[in-house]
Amino acid sequence: DQQVKQNSPSLSVQEGRISILNCDYTNSMFDYFLWYKKYPAEGPTFLISISSIKDKNEDGRFTVFLNKSAKHLSLHIVPSQPGDSAVYFCAARGYSGAGSYQLTFGKGTKLSVIP
Amino acid sequence: NAGVTQTPKFRILKIGQSMTLQCTQDMNHNYMYWYRQDPGMGLKLIYYSVGAGITDKGEVPNGYNVSRSTTEDFPLRLELAAPSQTSVYFCASSYRRGPEYGYTFGSGTRLTVV
Question: How many CA atoms lie less than 13 Å away from A43 in the CB half-sphere?
Fold first, then answer.
């Protein structure tokens, strides 16, 4: 069963416009949500996170919104730039026992920003 | 500032061969992880370690082994390679606390088993 779902495999956006990437989850015990960005042939890079007790976190052009009742989060990129073209992974952190935590990743959404 | 270093970057193995994927971090992170990413899929956790001498299974541990003799190194061992292990493997590390900073990932090892 997929606990973290990114239902859109790809998204195309015009440069300068807003990009909205969505993520749904099923496990209400997740306590942190993170977004990672991945370029081809590179490892994922941490982008932004949000605690489950908050509903919004902003960092420059990137804002993450969390709707706990809907078990839904979204990443907004404003304005979108060609360098934002990458695969974006949503991840959720859950407690796995003995003081340790694990991340569960979605399948990713490929964002293409068109100049 | 090397971060997380993985070697090799690419490898082709024959069925039944064995190999070790190397992972080293220089950030003094206690937590280290091995993930695999199959095409079109998210990352799946293979094994993780909360400190030297302590390892535990993740979501997909079958066919793999790990060890953690030092804080810096976390090698992943494939004993009898199978085509199902064709994947991209990522090593990552993190502080014990601080999920707001996420994990630091290596650049990956692309493994093909033929």
Answer: 24
pLDDT for residue B100 is more than 80 = no
Reported as type and span, the H/E element at residue A37 is strand A32-38
Three-point CA angle B57, B62, B76, nearest 5°: 70
Question: Which residues of chain B have a CB within 8 Å of the CB of A3?
Answer: none
Positive or negative, the CA dihedral A78, A83, A87, A88 is negative
pLDDT digits (tens, 9 = 90+) for A6-39: 999 999 999 999 999 999 999 999 999 999 999 9
Report CB contact under 8 Å: B99, A108. Answer: no
| DSSP strand pairing (B31-37 vs B87-94) | antiparallel
Q: A60 Cβ partners below 8 Å, 6+ apart?
A: none
Shortest CA gap A30–chain B (Å): 12
Q: What is the CA radius of gyration of chain B?
A: 13
